[in-house]
Hints:
There is one protein chain. The chain is α/β, with parallel strands linked by helices. The protein has 14 helices and 11 strands. The strands form 2 sheets. Strands 2-1-3-10-4-11 form a 6-stranded mixed sheet, with helices on both faces.
Amino acid sequence: MFISLNRGLMNYLSSLIKKQLGVFLITAILAIVLTNCTTQTSSPLRIGTNLWTGYETLYLARDLGYYDQSPIKLVDYPSGTEEVRAYRNNEIEGAGLSIDQALVLAANQENIKIIAIVDVSHGADVILGKPEIKDIKALKGKRVGVEATSLGAFFIARALEKNGMSVKDIQIVSLEPIEHERAYKQGKVDAVVTFGPARIKLLAAGAKLLFDSSQIPGEIVDIIAVSTEAIANSPDTIQALINGRFRALDYLEKNPQDAATRMAKRTKVTSKQILDAFKGLSQPNLQENQKLLDQTDPALVNGMKKLIQIMMENKLISKAIDPASILDDRFIKNAKLSSQKNS
């Protein structure tokens, strides 16, 4: 009888252990699944920007709470050059870039896609000179501050070309955007290729406008680009990024004074100066973006082809790129302007 009871006890214990082991395994599996889910959710989509007026709608979206439900992190860099470096080093998954910078990246790596058009510069990029400098031709032999990017090189080359000159006619001084205002005011340069807050402050200080992007319409375009890896891993977050940005653009159009007040706090200029800066930009709305990215409107692709040719001629990129190959319209196509929570 003792043996029978012992066997019965052993069977009971064995059954209990199996049940507990089963519960443990289920708990362990759930923990692993939840950990993986948490990792994906908590890892933010890092988007690089710089102090370009067109990118301020991303920060406006954040300020309005449009990104509160999404793991989106906006990372401010002193220049587009730093954004390109950060993207190459996998420090960010995407960025607000001038289209030439996106082409430079695409020429060297195949993992970048343009997912939205932010703006077309129509006077926001400028060449400012000392008051005594009458025009671009008067820059011959003068020191001109230029950011060491393909856009800086492209813009000054086009301005000089439009006036029958070349970069050989001036002295190029390489300057980061954060140095533009100080270098000009300290007399280190006679003129500067600039934009954003530096443009606003230097014009207010009496600098003379010598050339602006309205004289080369459609040639300077700013975009949002992300990596193909981010598209594969975080499509919902990217969709939230795009939804929020176009909701913010809609808010800016309907509530310009409040939007400008919110943006002025970050850029450290007045709300009036912010609104004046936006006058130098054309910001394609959602419908216009859809037509440009799906090529119903060929203006974007045609402009990119022209830009690629100019960049090739000036050795700013080493090979030609098919513009259509780096456009991805899925997020623009699915974008919503409703106030529903992004997820």
